[in-house]
Amino acid sequence: MTSGDRPDRHTEPRTESNTGQPVDAAGTGGPAGTGGVDTLAYPISPDYVKSWTPVSAVCELIANALDEDPDATVGWADGVLTIADDGPGIPEEGMILGHSTKTMQQIGQFGEGKKLACLVLARSPEIGAVRCETAGYGFTPTVERRRLLEGLIPSRSGKGAEVLVYHLHRNDRSRGTVFTVACTRKLAEEAIGRFRALSEPDYIRPAAPGACVLTGTPGRVWIGGLLVSTTPGLLASYDLPLDDKGLQNRDRTVIEAGAMRDAVRAILAASDDAAVVDRFATHALAGGKLREPEQFFMAVTGPRPRAAWRSWARAHLPANAFYAGSRQEEAVLDLQDMDYTAVTASGLPGYQEQVLMTLLGVEVARVRQQRHYERNHDRTTWVPDRDLSTAERDILDAAKALVCRVIGPFALDRVRVYSDSQESPCTDGFYTPRTGDVAVHRDVLADRHRTLSVLFHEAAHRVRHRGGGRWIPSPDYSDRSRGFEHMLTEFGGLLLGLLADIADGGTLPKPATPPTPAPGGNRRTVRLTSADDPAVPVSRRELAHLLIDRLPHALTRGGFTDENDLVASTAVRPVYWRLLTRPRPAGFRRQQGVSTAWDYDKVALLAEAVGVHPPVAWLASNLCEGPLHGRRRDRWGRPGRWVKNVRDHVDRACADLEALGGAYATHVPAVRALADGTTPAPTGDDSWQAPARALIALERQRLRLDGDEQSG
């Protein structure tokens, strides 16, 4: 039978006659009349693998055919099941027990499957004649009583042993294998029904970690499309990849519960399918229980799966939702009085409920209550600008301008005046790292010298913390720190150098351009945004403006109530959005927490939420970190190749730019030249960030942000 003669799946098969020549029993392997053999005996007892059923054996033959040929055909007609593939056939090596071309990660690596299947079918009273036609020869397996090695081995019974015997014959096939098995239609349909490839025309074997199947009866578990078990109580069915022999035994059934549990959890944890999330979220919040393999919430760590859960919550849960932990009755009553809504997953263990609520973005009652009060509690009494006297305003303005002129425009941003504060009650001023603001006690403004001293001191905190010009950010910026002392020392050296220059006929640096007050706003409460801070690399500043300018359109298009709602829908920590829209100088490092928006997938989710291409956002935010990341501080900005971690991220961004094509792809060589160290990238110089800036310009043009209309 040629490959074109194979029966279609689930169609009437064609019958093939034996076209091979008979062989004799002389044992020399030649055709009839030349001394060839007509049988091949395997010393395998018929009692071996008693757990195998005829259905298991037939499934083994079908699985082997599909392994050789994904288009293999299987059909039953007139009491005969036919399994045909267009593979290379079964060579001599395939008749040897223990020989296999399969890998250590696949079932069948010992070459037992076909032999055991033939043994089971030959001994079964439910099965009739079994016949195989393959390239160059054919055989019929039977169980017979034989004396091994022509009786040279003594037999205890004197009658010999029952063994598996192949009756061999020649044929003229050039490739392909056809098995015919005489069996009932019920047995054939049961075996065929275990294969998704035979019942689903578009079926493709899943890649790791596998696929969650929501259709049909739940609880079924396939491996490579072959049904191997049914587990009652599961909420869905699962198709595992055929790449782990630990999941199966020789008859292709799941035998290790822990391995199946890990496989199911891996599938669910990696899924960002909205239908999968909906099924499990709805079930859990309705109080339903989950069997152990499907208690997977703690394993959901990927950015996109987490975003899928957060998107579901946004669509199905009230905005003011909370859940109650243990002994939080008072907080629950308080929140309910403020029109908050409680949600529960009572069918889950306590720790699983907590993790699920975190995935959904639902806070525990006590935390939600605390956040509510924190937003309404102010620990500092600020003095409005209008309440300052003219003399106080003049001293403050002159002192701030002088400090920024001597040190740089990044030295100070917004300076606020207070009369009382719990932040730092025993000082004349303080610096707020969270906002970059400097606060000055009102009493200080009575004296020019004290005002200059306080602003100079707080400017040292700010520059040591945020960086600017030739100074790199450092976490060592507080009063009792060596870094702060070094900063004051450098400021002192800078001032002495300026005095020496002036003595030689020089002048002070040009004054910094003050920020433009917002229309109708108070001129002294205006603060430079991070997108305008000269200490921040220019590519980060331009990215921040791109995202901020695009934000209103994204809010309208996505139906978000505000910026926080948009960020929450991605399940990415808000600090990432703040780092993109309120950027920090290059080299900024927190003592704890996230310092840069480094994770490509998280940046991609935020960029996609506002309609910006992910590689543009990632490069604009992180290209400036290339000469710094992974190096000792004393080697920052030195020439040379960037570290591997940076190059890997850059390669991913470049691959995405190439996929976008057009003008985006033209900037890939320049970006790669930076990562390879071909193009220098010194600190304190933004000119080498030109590729990132050009990509931002392309985005602004694509999104029509500088015109009258934005694209979708």
Automatic annotation (TrEMBL):
Biased composition, class Basic and acidic residues, residue ranges = 1-15
- UniProt-annotated stretches for the region Disordered: 1-38, 506-526
Coiled-coil-forming residues are: none
Query: In which domain of life is the source organism classified?
Result: Bacteria
Gly residues: compositionally biased ranges: 27-36
List the protein's name: Histidine kinase-, DNA gyrase B-, and HSP90-like ATPase
Record the organism: Virgisporangium aurantiacum
What does the organism's lineage look like at the top? Answer: Bacteria, Bacillati, Actinomycetota, Actinomycetes, Micromonosporales
